[in-house]
Write a structure and sequence with these properties.
The chain is of the alpha/beta class and 633 residues long. The chain is built from 13 helices and 26 strands.
Length: 633
């Protein structure tokens, strides 16, 4: 077994274990449902991946040639390492393996982003050693050549910087927040060291830090994988992916050598995630969905598969319970983060679409912004009986400004000034009562995972609390997945599964006052008024004013209902109170008369009734505008 040499206190690639193993890249990709990701997202056509590593053998059959659009898969390449290799070729086998796990177009040993193009930036020397300068130069080069996502399978040595303050961590965070380019980083192979924490740049706030799994079915924590918490208390890694016995393209493929060989380490876990995200970016671009890094991070984390840590089920790193509320203060597990990435789950999560706050589907996401003290609420649905699970995630970023050092050039001598992190909290309410919250004061993610849900109506709440960052309009991405909840049907105000006269009476009773819940506001104008009544009657119930029997026809049956209750204080549509004033009177008779025989529209009588304005035909679709949804095409 050989390991990477460390010759200086610099950035070094994680340890690489070489040997003969039975597993293969097709096994690890199958474990994370990469085939389902490809089926749902495609294979990253049109996306450019920045491979910031030890060089890539770009002539390997799995990485050479053109994409499906006839473009060369290799976009550009350059050597920034400090040795005298003077080549962009791979000098150790590390870079080609990393690139192939994400990008391989081999029919068996495939990457999820098998149709993506890539930039080869060689930043590590023949000893797998690099510096902050070479890595930043590589990032700049890849970005200048169109890279839309970076893979950084490298870290400082064990015991190095792990609080997000290093120059490289700030530079990586800058690319995420300012350039909207996600950065995927290996956690490092420090599990056997006294100091096990992921080091720079895996300690960044905005990056996606990937730990590892092992075992025949990749259900075990990879013992060499670095684990948190970081020295500042933050949770890392974010997720895990297969890291042991990974068959990847070999730089020594020519001649009698095998085209593929086995490698171990979190270096090779990270590109599993990079490939998934590249495919997600390609799908998002095709479907017009946001590919903001915070959205990608929130949906990736929220869709992760919960796995055991040894024999112990997944659990957040620290929590306490008070007054019946589950309050999580370190949201991710210190070994496996939110869990193992899963392509099928990620497709379901992301393709469910984006929703505005208000009534939403049980699975979805949103990218929004909040001032200090602001709140976002998402009405997820209701459980009629105990059971089901609810997973919710926030992802937000620290701002890092790049300041030219005075030479007028984009280079590694520039300053990277980090702002204080905003503070968001994530809460889950059942029947308007708080039952769980994730309230880390340090992390740039919040995460909740609830099982065996009790019956009730569930709401997801995002709040921004005051802290050192009072910048207005800070962005936050939120993702949720509720299994076992029934979605709110538009107009089903009593949550009984039917839209009927009971719901109409509830809306009449509430109209003119503040909305008791957001789903009462059917026209999404923040006001309960006659427009909502008109929407309920004409668009949802598909009838007209005066139809007491709700049979779609205004006839003698409705007249008989009104006559039998005339002059009575009933307050029910089914008893003839079409005005909602609590009395069956001449106003109700005028409404029925004007529509008798299924008249031309809402009443136009001159009596003092809450007259609904006639809505346009577009109302039927406008009622669904409470959400910005773009599902799978």
């Amino acid at each position: 077994m050989r390991t990477a040499c460390v010759t200086m206190a610099a950035i070094v690639s994680p340890v690489v274990f070489w040997g003969s193993h039975a597993a293969a890249l097709d096994v690890s990709q199958a474990r994370i449902d990469a085939d389902d990701a490809i089926a749902g997202f495609g294979n990253a056509t049109g996306v450019i991946v920045g491979v910031i590593d030890n060089g890539v053998d770009v002539n390997h059959p799995a990485l050479a040639g053109n994409d499906s659009q006839g473009q060369p898969r290799l976009v550009a390449q350059a050597d920034f390492a400090t040795d005298n290799w003077n080549s962009t070729d791979d000098s150790t086998g590390h870079g080609t393996g990393v690139a192939g796990i994400a990008l391989s177009a081999d029919a068996t040993h495939f990457g999820t982003a098998s149709d993506a193009r890539y930039v080869n930036a060689r930043v590590s020397d023949t000893f797998l050693t690099s510096t902050t300068t070479t890595v930043i130069n590589g990032l700049d080069f890849a970005h200048a050549n169109g890279a839309q996502i970076f893979n950084l399978s490298l870290n400082e040595p064990a015991g190095g910087s792990d609080d997000g303050t290093s120059l490289l961590s700030r530079a990586a965070d800058h690319y995420v927040a300012a350039q909207n380019t996600p950065v995927v980083v290996s956690a490092g192979n420090f599990g056997a060291n006294p100091d096990t924490a992921p080091t720079s740049p895996g300690d960044g706030y905005n990056v996606i830090t990937v730990g590892g799994t092992a075992g025949p079915t990749y259900d075990l924590f990879y013992g060499f994988s670095a684990r948190g918490p970081l020295s500042d208390g933050r949770s890392k890694p974010d997720v895990v992916a297969p890291a042991a016995n990974i068959t990847a393209p070999s730089r020594l493929w020519e001649g009698p050598n095998a085209d593929f060989f086995d490698q171990d380490g979190t270096s090779f876990a990270a590109p599993h995630v990079t490939g998934l995200l590249a495919a997600q970016i390609g799908y998002g671009q095709q479907q017009g969905l946001s590919t903001d890094p915070a959205v990608l991070k929130a949906t990736l984390i929220n869709s992760a598969e919960k796995i055991n840590i040894g024999s112990v089920p997944w659990f957040p790193n620290a929590e306490f319970t008070g007054l019946g509320v589950k309050s999580v203060v370190q949201p991710l597990n210190r070994f496996v983060g939110a869990g193992q990435v899963n392509g099928a789950n990620l497709v379901d999560q992301y393709a469910a679409g984006e929703f505005d706050p208000g009534v939403v589907d049980p699975t979805g996401w949103d990218l929004n912004a909040l001032d200090v003290g602001g709140t976002l609420e998402y009405e997820l649905g209701h459980a009629a009986a105990p059971g089901g699970t609810l997973t919710a995630t926030l992802a937000f970023e620290r701002s890092v400004e790049r300041i030219d050092d005075g030479d007028g050039q984009l280079d590694a001598d520039d300053l990277f000034a980090a702002s204080a992190l905003a503070n968001f909290n994530l809460q889950i309410l059942r029947d308007d009562t708080l039952i769980a919250e994730s309230v880390s004061a340090n992390d740039s993610v919040e995460h909740l995972y609830l099982t065996d849900l009790d019956a009730g109506r569930y709401t997801l709440r995002v709040t921004r609390v005051s802290n050192n960052n009072n910048t207005p309009g800070e962005s936050v991405a939120v993702a949720w997945n509720a299994l076992g909840l029934t979605p709110f049907a538009l107009g089903d105000l009593d949550l009984d599964g039917n839209v009927d006269v009971t719901d109409l009476d509830l809306l009449f009773a509430a109209s003119g006052g503040p909305a008791p819940e957001s789903w009462f506001d059917l026209t999404d104008d923040d006001t309960l008024d006659t427009a909502d009544l008109d929407a309920m009657v004409t668009s949802i119930l598909a009838t007209d004013y005066g139809d007491a029997t709700l049979n779609g026809v205004i006839d003698t049956g409705d007249l008989a209902v009104l006559a039998s209750n005339f002059g009575q204080p009933v307050g029910s549509w089914a008893q003839g109170d079409f005005t909602g004033d609590g009395l069956v009177s001449t106003g109700d008779l005028a409404i029925l008369a004007s529509n008798f025989g299924f008249g031309a529209g809402p009443a136009t009588a001159s009596v003092a009734v809450p007259e609904p304005a006639t809505l346009s035909v577009a109302l039927s679709t406008a009622l669904l505008a409470t959400r910005r949804r773009h599902g799978m095409g």
